[in-house]
Amino acid sequence: MATEFFRVLDEQGRTNAPVAWTDDHRMFVWVPNTRAWHRSRELETDFLVERELTFEPLPAADVPDAMSGAQRIDERSAGWLVEEYRNQPADDRRTSADLGLRIAGERSTTSSVLVERLASTSGWVVVKTYANGGRAAERSAASLASDIRRGQRKALSKLGPLEARVAPAGGDLVVEARRAL
Questions:
Q1: Which 8-state DSSP code applies to residue 71?
Q2: Rounded Cα–Cα distance for residues 166 and 139 (Å)
Q3: Lower Cβ count inside 10 Å, N or C end of the chain?
Q4: Left, alpha or beta for 151 (phi > 0: left; psi -120 to 50: alpha)?
């Protein structure tokens, strides 16, 4: 999936969370409260039609800093919005790995978004992205795929048998999984 990242600036030039525009023409916004990327139809509309906000390109290397700098949504005044994000269907949520990001310290196989997406689809879902760093990256990716197939990842094993594979993605490697057919 080819993904472009942006900072969204309002009329006063303020920004908060980064957004991702995917090659299937969907906009996802980082929501610190849920630690996941959520589809935003409102931002899609502004990006494509209204143009009231400014979408400033954000290099993928700068996205992790933008994510950590994003302010949590105040659940006292906008709890309804956080609840709306939490109740989105699995297809409207993404992990950082889905968007091609490699986030240091992120435990991809324990992500509730990943588990819910695998449970709701029979298609391949990205579990983790590795920088194509030669044999070490290939071994790490192959090891994770093997663990998933053998049911060695606790959060994923409750889904039943899974298939897993390592696939190239641009210059990187991705581990993908799906429910066994």
A1: P
A2: 10
A3: C
A4: left
> Which tens digits make up the pLDDT trace of 89-143?
888 988 888 887 766 556 666 667 788 888 888 888 888 888 766 788 888 889 9
Query: How far from chain centre, in Å, is Cα 127?
Result: 10
pTM over 0.85: no
Q: Burial-class residue 19 by CB neighbours within 10 Å (0-12, 13-18, 19+).
A: buried
Q: In Å, how far are 32, 39, 40, 74 from 55, measured between CA atoms?
A: 20, 16, 14, 23
> CA-CA distance, 41 to 71, in Å (whole number)?
20
- What is the sign of the dihedral through the CA atoms of 161, 1, 38 and 111? positive
